[in-house]
Write a structure and sequence with these properties.
116 residues; alpha/beta; Oxidized Rhodanese, domain 1; 4-stranded parallel sheet; 6 helices; 14% strand
């Protein structure tokens, strides 16, 4: 599947059939840690934090689906800081049966381009 762009994510944010997974650490997600070069810290509205490390602990597709807790019909968008961790997460999610995509711009792009 093709990566999602900033423009498409902006348009689709809040869609019921779209789930946004932030695969960064809880501190990055909360905005108490992160890259100092980012204009702001936090997460994309509506995102759920599922650190990549937890996802990688799963040993089967069933474990991944149980951890994620979403129907397989849900389109899942993964993001991190720069698209690297989320690219790996998207592959794991695809292997578990999800239509998963990577937001390659991730927080690096979002924190610069989208107000508040």
């Amino acid at each position: 599947m093709a990566d999602i762009t900033l423009e498409e994510l902006r348009r689709r944010l809040g869609d019921e059939d779209l789930a946004l997974l932030d695969v960064r650490t809880p501190l990055e997600f909360e905005g108490t840690a992160g890259m100092r070069t980012d204009p702001r810290q936090g997460h994309i509205p509506g995102a759920v934090n599922l650190p990549l490390e937890r996802l990688l602990e799963c040993r089967s597709a069933l474990e991944v689906r149980t951890l994620v807790g979403l129907p397989e019909s849900t389109e899942v968008i993964a993001y991190c800081h720069s698209g690297v961790r989320s690219a790996f997460a998207a592959q794991v999610l695809q292997g578990a049966g999800y239509g998963a995509r990577n937001y390659i711009g991730s927080w690096y792009e979002w924190s610069r381009e989208v107000p508040g």
